[in-house]
Every structure is written in structure tokens, then in C-alpha cells.
Amino acid sequence: MKTPLQHVAAAALLALCANAASAADIDTAPIASSGWSGLFVGLHAGHSWGIGPDSDEFIDKMDTDGFSGGALVGYNFQFDRVVFGFEADVSGGDMRQEPLEFLDDGSVQSAEIDYTASLRGRLGYDMGDWMPFVTAGLGIADVKFKDDFFGFVNNDRQTFIGYVLGGGAEFKLDSLLSTGTDGKLLGRVEYLYTDYDDEVFDIPFDLGPSDLETHTVRAALIWRFN
């Protein structure tokens, strides 16, 4: 016959086993996911500003800035709450440095970024109706430079290539508006910084290597296929 102490010990052991089993069920249960995987496409618009093109020779420091907008496409994979994927985008707009006088004789220089593009990886974390993310990859900028030197006008175009870093957040518009899209219509805000390798504009005299950096703050409207 069991003593009262044995009954208490047996009950405690049964309770401990039950608690362990419950904990195991919780630990092994899949994490609820709100779903961010799949193909997505979108449109984006915002403001971009740059430092450059600028050289140590004959190009005065320029500050290109203006509206930028374009399209994007990408694909996400999701494991539990971790989301990673790839994205490509292209942007056009009105990023320019208006004619800037650099000599007392009225000689001026100007620059315009016709388009930018990037190919990036992304890493995010599923927070339910929204997802913060970071991104990094390759950036491209097509830059047109114009020089009016003592009345002689020269033009050249160069493609700058560099790296992109940034981050932002996406959110399901269903959580804010009754869109009826079942989480497929997304909004996004993000910041991108791009540092390009130096390029030399090919005009009759040597301008020296020109550097370029750009910053972009933009919003996007995205449709996710899943």
C-alpha cells in the first residue's frame, strides 16, 4: 500500500510529465505565419538626391536631386517567420544638377541621372500584418554630363556601377483598409543608399575620375501572387 508521501510524489511526477508534454507540444508546434512568400510586382515613387558627379580636376561638386519612380519585381521565400528573397527595380525621373557656373567667364557644367536600377537580396521578419526588412545588392546609374567650356559644348554619358544598402517595412493594406485582397495588396516604405565606383567622362580634356553617391526615400504599392 502506498503511503501518503508516495501518493503525493506520484501525483507530482504525473503533473511534471503532463507539463513537459505540453511544453514539447508548444515547442514543436509550427509558428503561425501570415504568408509573405511568392512572386510580387509593384510600382514605386519617391525622392532621390545625390552627391556628384564630382572630380578633383574640372568638375565642381554637384548635388543632383529630384523625383524618381518606376517598377519592381521580386520573389520571396519564407521559413517560419524568416523571409528572404530577391528583387530587381528600375527608376527614372528628374534627378539633375541645373547648370552650375565653375569659371568666371560663364562656363557651366550640368548633370542628369537618366535612370537607376538595382538587383538586391532582401531579408525580413514576419510580424503578422507587417514585415521589416534589410536589403543589399548591385546598383546602376546612367549619368549624362554636359560641359560648356569657353563656349565649347561637350556631352558624354557614363554608366556608374556600385553597391546598394537599405531597409524599410512592408504592410498588408487589408490591416488598414477594407481592400478585400486577402493580404495580396501591400504597401511599402524604404530607404536606399548607393555608392558607385568612379567613372571618367570622355570629353576633349581630362576631367579626372568622377564619383557618385545617391540616396532614395520612396513608397511602393505591391501586388503579391501566392
Compact description:
With 226 residues, the chain is mostly beta strands. It has 1 helix and 8 strands, in the order αββββββββ.
Descriptive notes:
The chain has 226 residues and is mainly beta. It folds into two domains: 1-30; 33-225, Porin, CATH 2.40.160.20. It is built from one helix and eight strands. The longest helix is centred in the first third of the chain and has 25 residues, at 4-28.
Write the layout of secondary structure elements.
Elements: H1 4-28, E1 38-54, E2 65-79, E3 82-101, E4 108-125, E5 130-149, E6 152-172, E7 185-199, E8 210-225
Antiparallel strand pairs: 1-2, 1-8, 2-3, 3-4, 4-5, 5-6, 6-7, 7-8
Label this structure with key terms.
226 residues, Porin, 2 domains, 8-stranded antiparallel beta barrel, elongated, disordered N terminus
The overall number of domains is 2
From the alpha carbons, calculate the radius of gyration and give it in angstroms: 28 Å
Distance between the termini: 63 Å
The CATH level-2 architecture of the largest domain is identified as: Beta Barrel
Q: Which word captures the global form?
A: elongated
